[in-house]
Amino acid sequence: MVAKGSxxxxxxxxxxxxxxxxxxxxxxxxxxxxLRISDREKAIDLVHDTYTKVWSYVRSGHEIENFRPFLYxxxxxxxxxxxxxxxxxxxxxxxxxxxxxxxxxxELSEDNVDSxxxxxxxxxxxEQLETLPDEYREVLILRFxxxxxxxxxxxLIEETENVVSVRIHRGLKTxxxxxxxxxxxxxxxxxxxxxxxT
Length: 198
What we know:
Layout: H1 14-37, H2 40-59, H3 67-86, H4 91-98, H5 110-118, H6 122-129, H7 134-145, H8 150-157, H9 161-197
C-alpha cells in the first residue's frame, strides 16, 4: 500500500500526480466518452468510474508512468462493457448488410487515409458519427478527435495496427457513403418541393 504522502514520479506524491492527471485529462476524456456513447449522463458516469478505478489502482501501490494512455485504456474498457450491455450489432453483420469493401491494403497507408478523410465534410461527419458502428466510431474518434496514431490506437484497443488501419479506412468510407446518401436524399426532397411549387 502506498502511503498518502509517498512520492514516485519527479518527486511528486501519487496523489498530486493523480490530481494533475484529473485536471489535465478530465475534459478530453469526457468529450471522448460523449462522442462514443452519445449520452451525456452516461459519459459523466464512465469518466467518474475511470478515475475511481485508476485511483484505487494507484492507492493499492501501483505506479503509473504515463497517465494519459492509462486513463484512455480504462475508459475504453468501460465503454466496451457499456456496448456489450447494449448488445450492438456485430461488425460482420453490418459489413454484410452494407456491402462495404475496405479495398486493397496499400490503400490503408496514412497518406491515403488522410486523403480520404480530407474528402469528407467535417461537420457532416460529426453529425453521422453517432450512427456508425462502435468499431468504426471508436477508431475514428481516437484518430481524428484525440489525435492518436494507428500504433497508439492499436496498443489502446489491443488490436494490430493493420486491424486499426482497416477499421479507420472502412469507417471513413462508411461515413462518406452515409453523407452522400443523405445529400442525395436532401436534393431529391428539394427537387420535389420545387416541382410542387411550380
